[in-house]
Amino acid sequence: MRHLSLLLASKSPARLATLRAAGIEPAVRVSHVDEPAVLSQVRGGPSQQVLALATAKARAVLAELRAEAGFEVFSTTTGQPASSFLSTGEPTRLPDLILGCDSMFEFDGQVFGKPRTPEVAKERLTAMAGRSGVLHTGHCLLQGTSGEGLSALSHARVHVAPMSEAEIDAYIASMEPLWVAGSFTVDGLGGPFIEHVEGDYHGVVGLSLPRLREMLAARGLSITQLWTQAEPAKGEESEAGREYLSRTRPFSPRHSADGFILCSCGRRHWGLAGAAGICAFRDHEGSREVLLQLRAPWSHGGGTWSIPGGAIEWFEDPQTGGLREFAEETSITELQIRGCHTADHGDWRFDTFIAGCTDGVEPVPDAESTELRWVCLDDVPANLHPAFAQSWPEIRSFVLNAD
Fold first, then answer.
1. pTM score
2. pLDDT tens digits, 246-297
3. What are phi and psi of 290, to 5 degrees?
4. Which domains does the chain have, with CATH numbers?
5. Which one of 34, 96, 102, 317 is the catalytic residue?
6. Which residues contact 368 (CB under 8 A, 6 or more apart)?
7. Can 258 be counted among the known catalytic residues?
């Protein structure tokens, strides 16, 4: 296996130290993302917020690198590496991978980012002393040429020791808690005040090494390929890894929450903020039918049947996102929502809204569909998308009994 270069899209010294301790010496580039502006577009809780920020940081850095370099991609079939060119004409190699991260602390139903002022830090630390909360960390790993990404979350419950007012004041006077999520560190002066952590310690520091390893493995790569001094694991790079690294076609998401997430269930799912779709049904010539979509070969799950739907936006609720996706893929807008089925995987969920449709309405497929077809409930094809197949028995029962 060959060495891979990594660029860290973060100014966090703790994240940089975590990578260095693991034998990885990344380049560092601060994204300067307008975090309040990003968060103003996020409807969900802390998991969605940290994923949105991590994604925005990684994508912003990639965009800056391309713009500054006058980006031009060379085909790997020619034997030349993917490169960009500066105005001087000197080649500068883009990083193989770009990593963005963000963390937030959830306590008593509130989400704590950086306190920024001593007053806010004291209020939070006083409330947290002797209690616990959950630290959420979002990760976004981009392929440095195409920009194709994979995101993941880590969660850990942090138990804070009882702290006297004098200890709180002294800790705040050190300035350390003002610029870290939750107003504390586990690897610095705040460490003595953290009694224990349930979950990934590194995730609490701000970058989960186990999740990074899992994201790389999901792309056919090994974390040993990021070691700076030590040799990577022996053997040939996997075919999946070579294919992933060789992609040069830029990934251009239609929506900011488009992308894959490596869920805690161990599978990759499409939709950083979750996904939703519509199982539309109608009564036609004495039979109850559902509208199914044969997904285009290039799409996620291509060649399988499911319902029209997809990633919802950060600011959308599932029903709004599901209706939008359905309309984009079918051109049908007149529906009567009758119910909802939720497949909740923890870090990701898919909401299927069951909706009645007037007989005679025919869909108009977009590029994501090879075919859209009204199908009798008893004639549903066998090659269903695996995730849809798991939910289909319950959805079928609901459709069958809907008024």
1. 0.90
2. 998 888 888 899 999 999 888 899 999 999 999 999 999 999 999 999 999 9
3. -120, 150
4. 6-246 (3.90.950.10), 271-401 (3.90.79.10)
5. 102
6. 293, 295, 296, 299, 310, 329
7. no
